[in-house]
């Protein structure tokens, strides 16, 4: 069963779309609906549906502005609008389809087919990532495979200085001063890192043990090769000293 979220400032439009989905498709379940775009953004920060039905004309925040504020879009986006002029713009924002209001049942069925294909591709991408991760873990202990922005990155662990948590996201700080933001929690990143090289020194930080420049014991922090100061959590200090 595919999970959907609807965002539309008109409650009647939401009710109409829910009715259409329940009557013409048993493959999609509406997990949440919102007339307030800000509330929808907060919800989507913590939850990932298979598809989003999004109205483009909302008084407090337009649909395209809404898409630009999303932290991640690992789901199919279907634009709903009463104006055909938005079709091209919708496709430029990587929406997989658009529906003209009032929504035609046949058009909705076509959109559902596209949503299913998008979902299948996403699942296959995840499976492929797992295969590559397993391969790296067995045959190349110094490389990791990580998914970001629809791309699979192959990173040498020596290039990673530290990783910082940001809720459902993690930022990797690299040797060349580049940053990579991934849609993984810190514990998920920690699970794919080789233990010999990395240590979770704090709830919000994982460090590369080979990139420590100074450990200030009294003040409880380390200075990395990049000159960033990373705090050492008290409850992790003894384990950290053993690692060193």
Summarize the amount of helix as a percent range.
25-40%
**Annotation, overall tally of beta strands:** 15
What is the topology, as strand order, of the major beta sheet? 2-1-3-4-5
The H-and-E topology, N to C, reads as: EHEHEHEHEHEEEEEHEEEEEH
Shape field: elongated
Beta-strand share of residues: 25-35%
Mean pLDDT: 83
Written description of the protein model:
The chain has 244 residues and is α/β, with parallel strands linked by helices. It is 35% helix and 32% strand. The protein has helices spanning 11-24, 37-46, 63-69, 87-92, 105-139, 186-192, 237-243; strands at 2-7, 28-34, 51-55, 76-81, 97-100, 143-148, 151-156, 160-166, 169-174, 179-182, 198-202, 205-208, 212-216, 221-224, 229-231. The longest helix is centred in the middle third of the chain and has 35 residues, at 105-139. The radius of gyration is 22 Å and the shape is elongated. The model is unreliable at 123-128 (pLDDT under 50).
């Amino acid at each position: 069963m595919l999970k959907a979220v609807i965002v539309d400032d008109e409650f009647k439009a939401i009710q109409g779309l829910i009715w259409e989905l329940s009557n013409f498709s048993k493959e999609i379940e509406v997990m949440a609906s919102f007339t307030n775009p800000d509330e929808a953004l907060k919800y989507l920060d913590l939850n990932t549906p298979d598809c989003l039905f999004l109205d483009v004309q909302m008084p407090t925040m337009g649909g395209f502005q809404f898409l630009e504020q999303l932290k991640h879009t690992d789901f199919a986006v279907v634009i709903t609008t009463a104006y055909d002029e938005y079709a091209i713009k919708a496709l430029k924002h990587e929406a997989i389809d658009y529906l003209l209001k009032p929504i035609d049942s046949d058009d909705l069925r076509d959109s559902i087919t596209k949503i299913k294909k998008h979902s299948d591709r996403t699942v296959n991408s995840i499976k492929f990532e797992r295969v590559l991760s397993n391969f790296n873990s067995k045959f190349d202990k110094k490389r990791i495979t990580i998914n970001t922005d629809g791309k699979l990155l192959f990173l040498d662990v020596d290039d990673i200085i530290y990783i910082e948590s940001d809720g459902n996201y993690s930022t990797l700080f690299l040797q060349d001063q580049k940053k990579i933001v991934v849609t993984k929690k810190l514990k998920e990143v920690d699970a794919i890192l080789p233990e010999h090289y990395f240590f979770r020194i704090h709830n919000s930080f994982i460090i590369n043990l080979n990139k420590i420049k100074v450990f200030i014991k009294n003040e409880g922090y380390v200075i990395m090769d990049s000159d960033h100061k990373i705090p050492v959590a008290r409850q992790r200090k003894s384990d950290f000293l053993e690692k060193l």
